Amino acid sequence: MAGVSTESQDALAQVFEQRFAADASTTTSNELFAVANLLDQNGSLRRGLTDPSREAEQRRGIAASVLEGKVYPAVRELAIIAAGSRWSGERDLADALEHLAVLASAAAAERRGGQEAVTAVIEDLLRFTGVVEADARLQNALTDQRATAQAKKRLVSEVVALRTPEGQELVNQAVEHPRGALPAMLAERFAGVLAALQKRSIAQVTVSAPLDEQRRERLQRTLSSIYGKDLALDLTVDPEIIGGIKVQVGDEVIDGSVLARISDLGRTMTAS
């Protein structure tokens, strides 16, 4: 049935927030990712847990048996609840568990340092995305099937400064288990989940030259003021960009030719 998976994922997220978020940790997140990866790798298990011809209780029983003693009790219970839900396709259950893993990372960050810590995780994810998308060689290295996961994670640690443990964990997951997506795109999707929790939007900003942290923060404040809502910046550097900047928030795009509307934006970028 169309829409069943979306409704099931939303219901599962609500259960997590109500019953499990208060005690969530990075271990919770890692184990939820691990269960999602297990489903990706094990077709018979994936089909067993999503087959609509099976009774919900039977699907829950399979999940309970397979995960007994292998993950945190809370993770096992979430997987059991998820297995009892209805999913439109085989992949949807793993997608929902991945979504829960990101929510668990957000909850762990918030427990550690409040909403500022969650914002720092978003910034880590978008920093990783920006660095990778700006370097074709790095993109190729992170998608090279011959390279080990450890080698890829080591490369990331050398080229991207990540400031939060949750950001590091989510980036590692995107690199090690991209689940058919490009690592940078998956990290950006994780950032979108966290931004939605904070009721923020992500502004995709392309600039002609790199910005230091001070200019980045000033640009973020200026754009947030222009759009009347708190924005997180997904920065990309492209020396060929017309007017020195392009901003996209949702479907709206602003480029250098309409800077009259945002007259202080140029000063934001060039101010020392």
What's this entry about, in short?
The protein is α+β, with helices and mostly antiparallel strands and 272 residues long. It has twelve helices and four strands.
Structure description:
With 272 residues, the protein is α+β, with helices and mostly antiparallel strands. 64% of the residues lie in helices and 8% in strands. Strand 1, helix 11 and strand 2 form a beta-alpha-beta unit. Helix 9 crosses helix 10 and helix 11 (213-227) runs antiparallel to helix 12 (263-270). The protein is globular.
* Succession of helices and strands: HHHHHHHHHHEHEEEH
Task: Give the tally of β-strands.
Answer: 4
Cα-atom radius of gyration: 20 Å
| Beta-strand content estimate | 5-15%
Q: What is the strand arrangement across the widest sheet?
A: 2-1-3-4
Task: Estimate the global geometry from the Cα principal axes.
Answer: globular
End-to-end span in angstroms? Answer: 56 Å
What kind of sheet is the major sheet? 4 strands, mixed
Rounded mean pLDDT is 88
Helix content: 55-70%
Please state the structural category.
Answer: alpha+beta
Low-confidence stretches: none
Number of DSSP helical runs = 12
